[in-house]
Amino acid sequence: MDHDPRDFPPGDLRVSDAERDLAVSELGKAFQAGRLTTDEFEERCGAAFASRTGAELAALLADLPVERNPTETAVVHRPDQEPVPRPRLIAGATIAAACFALVAVANALSRGPSLQQRQLTQQIFAQHGITIPLPPAEGFNWPGTITPAIVSLVFVLLIVFMRATRDDR
User: Fold this and answer.
1) Which of 37, 78, 100, 138 allows an S-S link to 148, with CB 3.0 to 4.6 Å?
2) Residue 141 belongs to what domain range?
3) Could you tell me the CA-to-CA distances from 135 to 1, 10, 112 in Å, in that order?
4) pLDDT tens digits for 10-34?
5) Which tens digits make up the pLDDT trace of 50-60?
6) Considering its fold, how many domains does the chain have in total?
7) How confident is the model at residue 47 (pLDDT cuts 50, 70, 90)?
């Protein structure tokens, strides 16, 4: 057999844990189908976990039929394949961007606490023995507006980047 249909590394190239798990999964399916006895299954599983090369794994499965889609049983991560961004991550980033944008807009439209609210806050703290200076006066809340706006912009850029990389594939 020149080429292993299970896509294990050829010859003496080392195998990964995921590829060993794939081989054990296929052995389990063969055992469930009655193609292997209990002793054969245990012996081959032990050999699969101890295997170092693709040739050793292929030899363990050589007399068994090939699954139609062996990648369904275990996902083998290849270094040349990067994970594709998931739609849930894009949706979560979209929701976060909208929330931060709403906070930024609310802070921009808010005039802050009135003089009466600031004095009431000072009195409440004084009743508990805490002396604080009068909270900031009415006016535009730059930090409360700019910070969530910048975070929202970062999320939007993340969404654009993730959409662009997903569409390239």
Assistant:
1) 100
2) 87-168
3) 80, 71, 10
4) 878 898 888 888 888 889 898 898 9
5) 999 988 888 88
6) 2
7) very high
Asked if 35 and 95 count as a contact pair (C-beta separation under 8 A), the reply is no
Residue entry with tokens 């794939």: 22
**Token digits for 88?**
């849930």
pLDDT of residue 160: 84
Residue 138's alpha-carbon distances to 5, 59, 73, 118, 134, in angstroms, are 72, 78, 62, 9, 11
In a domain, 80, yes or no: no
Domain boundary among 49, 72, 95: 72
CB atoms within 10 A of CB 20: 20
In a shared domain, residues 99 and 134: yes
- Measured CA to CA, the distance from residue 45 to residue 158 in angstroms comes to 44
Q: Tell me the chain's radius of gyration from C-alpha atoms.
A: 31
Tokens 């991560």 map to which residue?
Answer: 77
Residues 49 and 121 grouped into a single domain: no
Q: How far apart are CA 126 and CA 92, in angstroms?
A: 43
Instruction: Please tell me whether residues 164 and 102 are part of one structural domain.
Output: yes
